[in-house]
Request: fold
Amino acid sequence: MRRVGYAAIDNQLRSFLRSHLLQAALDYADAIAPVDRPNGTPGASLFRLAAAAEFAEEHAFVVKAMELLLAVWRSAQREVDSKPYLRMAAYRRLGKSLCVAGHVDRAREVLDQALQMQQAMTGEQHGETARLCISIAECYSAAGDFEAALQMRQRALQICLATSGPQDASTAAAYGNVATSQLQLEDYATALQTCSAALAALPPAFPRAQELNATLYNLKGLIHCKMGDSAKAQQALETALENAQAVRGPNTKRRQTNAIYNNLAIAMRGDLTLEDGNGSDEGEGKGADDNDDEKKKKIAERCTKALEYHGKALALAAVEKAPALSETAITYHFLGDFQKAAALYGRALHLAQRQCSPDHPFIAGMRANLAASLEGAGRHAEALAAAEAALPVLTARFGPAHRATQRCEARRNKLKKLMTDVEATA
Reply:
C-alpha cells in the first residue's frame, strides 16, 4: 500500500467517527497502520484519533487504537525512542481507557509503566506525575479499594502543592480528587473540609474557573446529600449548574450538567431510604406507614420532581451510565413502581459489570437495592438471589456492623424465611 499523507488519514478517520462508523474506522486504522509513517512519528493519526474517541467516551475504540499504535512503534523502535514522552502519553491514554472499559488490573499495570517512564524523565515533582497518580487512583477506585485510591490522590495533591503552589487550578482539582475518595470512604465531614479547601485554592482569574467551580460545587452538593442536608445540597448544586451552563462548549457542558441534574435528583429525594418505599422490611412489599397518606403524598411530590431532574440528565447523556440509571431506579422504587425500578437496576448492572470488578461495592450496593425492588414486585426468589449475591461483598468491604450490610442481611433473612414458609405450605 502506498503511503498516505496525515491530512488524508485524519479526514477519513474523522469522517468515520462523525458517522459513528467505529468498525469502519478500526478497519481503516488496521489497514493504514503499517504505512502511516511519512515524515514524522509513526502512527500519529492513530494517536489523534484516539484522543477524539476518548473525548467521545468510546473507550473500547481508544484501547484498540492505542494497542495498534504501540505495535507500530515496536516496529520503529529507534524513531520512537527519541521521543519518550509520546510513548508515555500513549501508555497513559491506553491505561485510562482500559480502566473505563473494565480491565482494571491491566489498566493499573499499563499506568504503572507510564509512571515509571515519567519519573525517569522528570522525577517525582512534576505535574504529569500527579496526573498519572490520579489515573492510577481511578483504577483502585474502580476495584473498590478506596483506601489505596485516597493514598494516590493525596500523593498527587502533595506534588501539586510542591510544583504549583497552594493557589492554582491543578491544586484545586487535586483537593477535589482527595475529597472524592473521602466521600467514597464515607468520611463526609473531612470530605466537606477538603472540598472547601479546593474551592479556596481555585484562582478567580483562571480561564476554566467556571468549569472547575461547577465540578467542585457539584461534589460539595453530593457531600451535603450524604450528610442529610438537602437545603445546602440544593444550594451548592444550583451554583454548580449556573457555572456549568456558563461554560463554552456543548460537550463539556453536557457532561457536567448531566452529573449535576442527577445529584439534584438525589438532593430532592433528601433523606429517603429504601424503607420509605413500599418495598420496605416491614412487610411483603408494604411499608409501615402505608396508611399515612400525607407522608405518601410528600414522598410522591419529592420523587416526581426528582424524576424531572433524572429525565433532564438522561436527555443530556451521550451514553447510558450505570450510576444515573441506578439513581433513577431508586426514585421509581420510592414511587412504588418496583418493576420499573428492577428493570433499570438490570440495565445499570449490565453496564457496571463491564467496567467494575465483580466484588466492587457499587455493584453489591445495586444488587442489594435490586433485591428490595424485586421483593416489592413480589419476585421473591429473584430478590433472595440478589441479596445473597450482595451480602458477602458488603460484609467483606464494610464489615457486618455497617448499615448497608445489616439491611441486606435482614432482607436476605426475611426472604429466606418467606421462601421456606412457601415451600412448607406447598
